[in-house]
Amino acid sequence: MAETMALPPHRHAAEPMPGGTAFEWPVRIYWEDTDAGGIVFYANYLKFFERARTEWLRSLGIEQHSLREQTGGMFIVSQTDVRYLRPARLDDALTVTAWLQHKGRASLIIRQQTFLRSEPASALLCEASIRIGWVDALSLKPARIPDSLLQRLENKP
Amino acid sequence: MAETMALPPHRHAAEPMPGGTAFEWPVRIYWEDTDAGGIVFYANYLKFFERARTEWLRSLGIEQHSLREQTGGMFIVSQTDVRYLRPARLDDALTVTAWLQHKGRASLIIRQQTFLRSEPASALLCEASIRIGWVDALSLKPARIPDSLLQRLENKP
Amino acid sequence: MAETMALPPHRHAAEPMPGGTAFEWPVRIYWEDTDAGGIVFYANYLKFFERARTEWLRSLGIEQHSLREQTGGMFIVSQTDVRYLRPARLDDALTVTAWLQHKGRASLIIRQQTFLRSEPASALLCEASIRIGWVDALSLKPARIPDSLLQRLENKP
Amino acid sequence: MAETMALPPHRHAAEPMPGGTAFEWPVRIYWEDTDAGGIVFYANYLKFFERARTEWLRSLGIEQHSLREQTGGMFIVSQTDVRYLRPARLDDALTVTAWLQHKGRASLIIRQQTFLRSEPASALLCEASIRIGWVDALSLKPARIPDSLLQRLENKP
Fold first, then answer.
1. Which CATH number belongs to the domain containing residue C31 in this structure?
2. pTM (predicted TM-score)
């Protein structure tokens, strides 16, 4: 259990993020993530980005399962633009970032990157813009993001 | 689109199934199904078995989404015993079977096999016993399978 | 097995595709495709698009596994831009399209859409531009698409 | 990033494991893991078990990707017997264990459990016996586990 947790602070060539640094989350590559090309199946980066967004929200005190029970709403992904630059392989240790690029009344745009942790510098593998909207969980109709949620997002890393 | 559909009736060494023949469903192997070993990731056979069970139920007139809305209940998997005998690879064409081995008041046991379609005879890749129970969809508590459902299952292939 | 195959020709409001109609492939929604929001997990549309691209290539006589053994090269996805418009649910029957939008010496851009099959008209759920490049399978370095492959792609649907 | 890592040592009713305690690995539930039943899709427990086995091996100094390059062999799963007792939901924090139950010349049997971390005691969600065999990575034929590997496994937790 120790290893993921023991990962030291790490330098990589992340984009400068106006208004703060990006949230970072470690991801390890397992068999489940790879395909017969010997590399990570590209669709799985969307899962890694989702994990980092979830943990970024959790770091702001936002738990999605509780949120849904309290507000009747949930986030839903409406657009994903992803560029895949270099492949990752089994056992690789990645860092996935999340940074709030735009905050609207009904949707957010999150800028995300995935880096391979390596020495002397990390390599950028993949980058994305993810648009997420707020919807009523039953009707799935778009709705305004609750104020309490927006206030927590102000406290953005 | 034609090819999967054009697959001719095919002989393979399926287990004799007392009381009827097994339901058969074709599955094609895509990149998403494989791992860096160059073969199908073993956990994905559970997905293939699920697809075949779903289509077997559908062939008996049972649609799970509608069923849940009508009865408030749903099937849930409670046990999966799987033996992996031979690997499958990208682009392989498989046949997945489903056969109702045991029918209780609250659970079913489905016997399933996966074959690689090849000439002159298909090869058995994987076989499983899957136990599924009926639960209330909200509380997830076990419940008796509705009579109307049991009657449809009598008409088992 | 019959039902997917028996789906009749179906009208939907597909984009006009200069130079031909789009290839179409049916996809059924199973439990594996959904998430706790009750809808299809957005990352899974990349799998559906991949299945349709694979079957489109197969319809042109291009089998990716054989191709790799013969040429030592393979396709790799380098960019995916996806817009999610409406959700799909368990048991839904979808049609996924693929249409060759741009053909370069080292990469292709495929335009893809996913429709919910429903009466009287299908609903557009999701649309994407997918860029795929040709690489050496061992080094993963970009390479020119083999001429024989380009010629087969001329015969595009 | 802090939360997963800050999880304190935790008591749960794990099976007594003759000859040592089980290796433990934390797993968090994300959207990708759930299905439309609102719970974790059962096939995904095989992924969680795999992650824990991989990290157990890594804790013994065994990296599977390097191992394959050095020995030309790899582990392959040949049998998975799983019982699903209680469901997990979005945002749940789980502990997954791995314990070497049997060590043969060509295969291992790993006993694994998944617990929901909750107070005052953890709840057992799922348990499994996983048989893994050693094969030549190209031919996929069974082979004897390399001695150096067996020696590292002696040092089992």
1. 3.10.129.10
2. 0.90
